[in-house]
Design goal:
Layout (H helix, E strand, L loop, with lengths): L3 H10 L14 E7 L7 E9 L1 H16 L9 H6 L9 H18 L2 E8 H7 L13 H18 L6 E5 L7 H9 L1
Parallel strand pairs: 1-4
Antiparallel strand pairs: 1-2, 2-3
Helix pairs in contact: 2-4, 6-7
């Protein structure tokens, strides 16, 4: 018996079985997060790309790990490294246990890893305050374009022309992603 979620899933992808399982679907999603972009010495964006059939079980498994004691509501590597936010008050041992379980989920589902890094000194030398356009003074802008173009090139080289939805982590008090979409669109 199909659940409501399965019925919605089937409607979204638009293909019946076995066609649905035997070809890439045209809804690749890339989930991307930053590394506290305004802080030197290295700016980085990184994330994972996969088809919808990957994200559904991945999200369930990821959520299960988040709920394992010590329970956390979400994962941010910056918080894990600095023992703040969701990782505030955890011991190194407990933090490492949680990280290892999350890595196990990634290894189980094998999404495509994507990343873009920009050393602070390179950004300062070639971008910051050098151009009148304020978008050139934000490391997020060139890095977002870099990660999107590299991802599209990766799939184009493999003759996969499916649409990719890029989902960037929301940064409170920032409209940087809205600006990227404005420029990109």
């Amino acid at each position: 018996m199909s659940s409501a979620g399965d019925v919605i899933w089937d409607l979204v992808c638009g293909l019946p079985e076995p066609e649905r399982s035997n070809r890439p679907l045209c809804m690749l999603k890339a989930y991307i997060d930053d590394s506290a972009l305004k802080q030197p010495p290295l700016y980085s964006l990184a994330g994972w790309v996969g088809a919808p059939k990957l994200w559904r079980p991945f999200s369930d498994a990821w959520g299960e790990v988040l709920r394992i004691s010590p329970r956390i509501s979400y994962f941010k590597m910056e918080e894990a490294i600095n023992f703040n936010g969701e990782f505030g008050g955890l011991s190194e041992e407990k933090r490492d246990e949680k990280l290892n379980l999350l890595v196990d989920v990634i290894n189980q589902f094998k999404p495509l890893g994507i990343a873009s890094s920009l050393p602070h000194d390179v950004f300062q030398r070639f971008f910051a305050k050098r151009y009148a356009n304020p978008d050139a003074n934000n490391p997020f802008i060139p890095m977002a374009f870099s990660i999107m173009s590299m991802t599209m090139e990766y799939f184009a080289n493999r003759r996969i022309s499916e649409k990719i939805e890029f989902i960037f982590d929301y940064q409170p008090g920032s409209n940087q992603m809205a600006r990227v979409q404005e420029i990109w669109g």
